[in-house]
Design brief:
- The chain has 1 helix and 74 strands.
- With 738 residues, it is mainly β.
- Among the domains are: 177 residues, Single-stranded right-handed beta-helix, Pectin lyase-like (Pectate Lyase C-like, 3 Solenoid), CATH 2.160.20; 90 residues, Jelly Rolls, CATH 2.60.120; 145 residues, Jelly Rolls (Sandwich).
- The longest helix is centred in the N-terminal third of the chain and has 13 residues.
- The N terminus is likely disordered.
Length: 738
C-alpha cells in the first residue's frame, strides 16, 4: 500500500522526489524485535523500484535483519519516526545494515541503526561489511537525525567515489571502527571521496576515531561533538585526517579521546604514502585528551603540508598542540595562530616534526602547562603571544637542538618555573626581539634568557626585563649579546659612579671632578650609553669616563671638559667608541697669524689691532698670548671681542723684556661656534711685536685708535677701518695647546 507524501506518518522534511511513501508494516514487516523482517522489506523495495523511487517508512518497532537493506535506485529515502524506529542486525549476520552503491540523491533520516556488534559474525576488520550505513560511488547522499550504534565496523562509512555528502545531526556511539569514516576506496584505483559537510553530529565512545577522513578531499567538519573515542591499536582521535586534503575542521568539541582530540597525519592506504595537506583547524574546543606518547595531545600535526591551527581552546590534554615526526614525511608550512593552550600535562605547544620547514607561532596564549609552554626542535618564528607560568623547572620557551635561526618577537614571557627562554647547547643564530620578561605574581622565573654552553651566537634586542629572580640573562657564547634594550634608565650622579647594566643616560651634576666607570662589555655588543655634563661646569669640574675593561677610541679614558658637553658611546663587545653626531673638529688654539708671512716690528702707538677668526666648535678659552721682539716700559692690552664688537675678556700689562707674554683668564671663557675678534693694543712705537701682513680688502683685519687700551666695544675705537697689519695673538683653549 502507498501513502501520499502528506500523511501523518511523515513530517514535512521528507526529501524523496517521487511522492510515494511505502510503510513497511503494510507490506508484512513485523517490527517485533524477534522475526527476520529482511524478506518483507525486500518486497517493499521491489514495489519502490516499480514506482521508480519513493520513501521506505519504518514506523516504531524493532526490525531484525539477517541481511542488509540495499537501496536499489536513485531518488529514494529511508525514514523512521525517530529512535523508536530501530533496524537491528540478527545474531550471526555479517552484512551492513544499509548499503548504498552507485546511486544519486539518497536520504536516510530519523531512524535508529543497531549493528549488534556483540552478536554478529565478527569477521576481520575490513571496509565492505558490518557498518551501519555503507556507501560507495554515490552522489548527493544525505544522512541526518539518525542514532547509529554498536556497528562492528563503522557507524557510517563512505568507501570511495562518493561526493556531495551531507551527514548532520546524527548520534553515533560504540561503533568499533571510526564512527564516521570517509575514505578513499580500500583497493585500487583508490578512488577518493570529494565534497561534503559533516555537521552537528555526536560521535562518542567508539573504539577508534569519532570522525576520520582518509585520502579524500574538500570536506567541512563543523559543530560536531566527539567524546571518549579510542584508543584501539594506538588510534583514537576525536577527528582525524589521514592523507586527506582541503579539510576544514571548525567549531567542534573533542574531549577525552584515546590519543588526540584532533589529528592530521599521512596514510599508506591509497597505494602510496600520502600526507595530509591544506588543512584548517579553527575554533574548536579540545580538552581532556590525556594519553601520552609521541603523537598524543589535544591537536596532533604530523606528516602534513600547509596546515593552519587557529583560535582553538585547548585545555587539560597531555600535549596541547603536538607537531611531531609521525612517519618521517615531515610537516611543512604550519601556522599556529591565536590558540589558547592551558593546563596540559606536558608541553603546551610542542614542535618536533623531525623534518620540515616554515613554522609560525603567532599570538598564542600558552600558560600553566606541566612542561614547557613552547618547545621546538626546528626553526620557528614566534610573534606575539603569552607564555606564562610553566611548571617548576620548565621554560616559557625552550628552543632545543635544530631550532637554529629561530626568531621570538613581541612575546610576553613571565612567571615561568625556570627561564623565560632556554636555548640548548646546539642551537645557533636565535634572535629575541621586543619581548617583555617579568615575574608578576611569583619569583620563579630565574632569568629572561639562559643560553647554554655551545649555543649561540644569540641576539637579544629591545627587550624589557623586570624582576628576574637571578639575573636578567646569561650568555655563554662571547659573540652573543643584549642589544639596545628598552629597559633604559636615566641616572643623575653627583660623585664617582659605576654604570649599571640597564643605565642608558648618565647626567652628571658634579661639584668637583668625577669619574664615570663604564660597565663590562662582554656580551654587550651594540649597547649604547650617553654621558652628559648637566652641571654646566665641566670646564673646571671635569668628567673622566673610564671603561672597566677595554678602551675608548683607543685610549684608556675620555674627558668631558666642555660645559654641557656630551659623550655618546657604543661598544662592539670588546671596546667603546664615541659616536657623537659629526661636527667640525674643535681647534687646538685660536690663532690669527700667517706662518709664511711674519715679521717682528714696531706698531703705531695707541692703536688697537683686531683680527677676525671663526670658531667651528665649542671651546673653552683659558689664556691669551703674544710675542715681543724687544721690550721696555711700554704698555699693551690683550683681549677678545664677540662678533657684535663686545669685549668679552682682556688684560693689560707692561712690556719689560722680549719674548712670549701670556695672560691667563681668571675664569675660563666658554665660546660657542661663531665669529670673534682677537685684539692687541700698544701705547708706543718703540717695542717690537711679532706681526703679519694681511690683505686690507678681505675685511678680517681692522685697526683703530684709543689712548687707554681696549674699549668695552669696538665702537670706542677712533677711525676703525680695514687694515693690512695684524699683531699675532694666540688664544689657548682647554684640552689644546699649552
Amino acid at each position: 500500500m502507498t501513502y501520499p507524501i502528506y500523511t501523518n506518518a511523515l513530517n514535512d522534511n521528507y526529501e524523496a522526489t517521487t511522492g510515494m511513501v511505502f510503510d513497511v508494516k503494510e507490506f508484512g514487516a513485523s517490527g517485533d524485535g524477534f522475526s527476520d523482517d529482511w524478506g518483507a522489506i525486500q518486497k517493499i523495495i521491489n514495489h519502490a523500484v516499480d514506482a521508480k523511487g519513493g520513501t521506505l517508512y519504518f514506523p516504531a518497532g524493532v526490525y531484525m535483519l539477517s541481511r542488509d537493506i540495499v537501496i536499489p535506485l536513485s531518488d529514494m529515502s529511508i525514514r523512521g519516526c525517530g529512535t523508536s524506529s530501530i533496524l537491528r542486525m540478527l545474531p550471526k549476520a555479517s552484512s551492513n545494515v544499509i548499503t548504498v552503491k552507485g546511486l544519486n540523491r539518497i536520504s536516510i533520516s530519523d531512524i535508529q541503526i543497531d549493528g549488534n556488534k556483540a552478536n554478529v559474525a565478527q569477521i576481520a576488520i575490513q571496509y565492505t561489511k558490518l557498518s551501519g550505513i555503507w556507501l560507495q560511488n554515490c552522489n548527493g547522499v544525505t544522512i541526518k537525525n539518525c542514532y547509529i550504534h554498536d556497528s562492528y565496523v563503522s557507524g557510517i562509512m563512505a568507501n570511495g567515489g562518493c561526493s556531495n555528502l551531507i551527514i548532520s545531526n546524527n548520534r553515533l556511539e560504540n561503533n568499533f571502527d571510526n564512527q564516521i569514516y570517509i575514505r578513499a576506496q580500500d583497493q585500487s584505483p583508490y578512488t577518493p571521496c570529494t565534497y561534503g559537510t559533516i555537521n552537528a553530529n555526536e560521535c562518542n565512545n567508539g573504539s577508534f576515531s569519532g570522525i576520520q577522513i582518509l585520502g579524500s578531499s574538500y570536506f567541512a567538519i563543523t559543530g560536531n561533538t566527539c567524546h571518549g573515542n579510542g584508543p584501539t591499536q594506538g588510534q583514537g582521535d576525536g577527528i582525524g585526517s589521514e592523507g586527506a586534503s582541503h579539510i576544514t575542521i571548525s567549531g567542534n568539541t573533542c574531549s577525552n579521546n584515546g590519543v588526540q582530540g584532533i589529528q592530521t597525519r599521512f596514510t599508506n592506504e591509497t597505494g602510496t604514502n600520502q600526507v595530509s595537506s591544506h588543512i584548517a583547524i579553527t575554533g574548536n574546543e579540545v580538552y581532556g585528551n590525556t594519553a601520552n606518547g609521541g603523537d598524543a595531545g589535544g591537536i596532533g600535526i604530523n606528516d602534513t603540508d600547509d596546515v593552519v591551527v587557529a583560535g582553538n581552546i585547548i585545555n587539560g590534554n597531555y600535549f596541547g598542540i603536538n607537531v611531531n615526526g609521525g612517519s618521517g614525511l615531515g610537516v611543512n608550512h604550519c601556522q599556529l595562530i591565536g590558540n589558547s593552550v592551558r593546563n596540559c600535562s606536558d608541553s603546551g605547544i610542542r614542535i618536533n616534526p623531525g623534518t620540515g620547514s616554515d613554522f609560525i607561532c603567532q599570538d598564542n596564549y600558552s600558560t600553566d602547562n606541566g612542561g614547557d609552554n613552547l618547545y621546538a626542535t626546528t626553526r620557528v618564528m614566534v610573534q606575539g603571544g603569552v607564555y606564562a607560568r610553566a611548571a617548576a623547572n620548565k621554560e616559557g620557551l625552550h628552543l632545543s637542538g635544530g631550532s637554529d635561526n629561530s626568531v621570538v618577537d613581541g612575546a610576553m614571557i613571565y612567571d615561568n618555573g625556570d627561564n623565560g627562554i632556554l636555548i640548548d647547547g646546539n642551537a645557533a643564530g636565535i634572535e629575541i626581539r621586543n619581548c617583555l620578561f617579568n615575574n608578576y605574581t611569583t619569583t620563579s622565573q630565574a632569568r629572561a634568557l639562559q643560553e647554554q654552553a655551545g649555543a649561540g651566537p644569540t641576539r637579544m634586542v629591545n627587550c624589557r626585563i623586570l624582576n628576574q629572580h637571578n639575573n636578567p640573562y646569561t650568555f655563554n657564547n662571547t659573540a652573543s649579546g643584549f642589544y639596545d634594550e628598552q629597559t633604559k634608565n636615566t641616572v643623575t650622579v653627583t660623585t664617582n659612579y659605576t654604570v649599571g647594566a640597564n643605565d642608558a643616560l648618565i647626567l652628571c651634576n658634579q661639584a668637583g671632578a668625577i669619574t664615570v666607570t663604564l660597565p663590562a662589555v662582554t656580551n654587550a655588543n651594540g649597547k649604547h650609553l650617553t654621558v652628559k655634563d648637566k652641571s654646566g661646569t665641566a670646564h673646571t669640574n671635569t668628567i673622566t669616563v673610564t671603561p672597566s675593561a677595554g678602551l675608548i677610541d683607543g685610549a684608556a679614558s675620555k674627558v668631558i671638559s666642555q660645559d654641557y658637553g656630551v659623550l655618546a658611546l657604543m661598544t662592539d663587545g670588546f671596546n667603546w667608541f664615541s659616536i657623537n653626531a659629526p661636527s667640525l673638529p674643535a681647534p687646538w688654539a685660536l690663532y690669527d697669524g700667517d706662518p709664511f708671512n711674519q715679521s717682528t716690528n714696531t706698531l703705531v702707538a695707541n692703536t688697537a689691532y683686531l683680527t677676525g677668526i671663526y670658531i667651528p666648535a665649542p671651546v673653552t678659552l683659558t689664556a691669551l698670548r703674544c710675542r715681543f721682539g724687544t721690550g721696555g716700559n711700554g704698555h699693551y692690552d690683550l683681549g677678545i671681542y664677540d662678533g657684535s664688537g663686545n669685549l668679552l675678556n682682556h688684560s693689560g700689562s707692561t712690556v719689560t723684556a722680549g719674548g712670549t707674554q701670556t695672560y691667563t683668564l681668571g675664569t675660563p671663557l666658554n665660546l660657542n661656534p661663531g665669529r670673534y675678534w682677537l685684539a692687541f693694543w700698544i701705547d708706543n712705537a718703540t717695542d717690537t711685536v711679532t706681526k703679519a701682513n694681511g690683505n686690507a680688502s678681505l675685511g678680517v683685519v681692522q685697526s683703530g685708535t684709543n689712548n687707554t687700551g681696549l674699549p668695552n666695544t669696538t665702537a670706542g675705537l677712533t677711525g676703525l677701518a680695514n687694515g693690512a697689519t695684524r699683531a699675532i695673538v694666540m688664544g689657548l683653549i682647554l684640552g689644546g695647546w699649552t
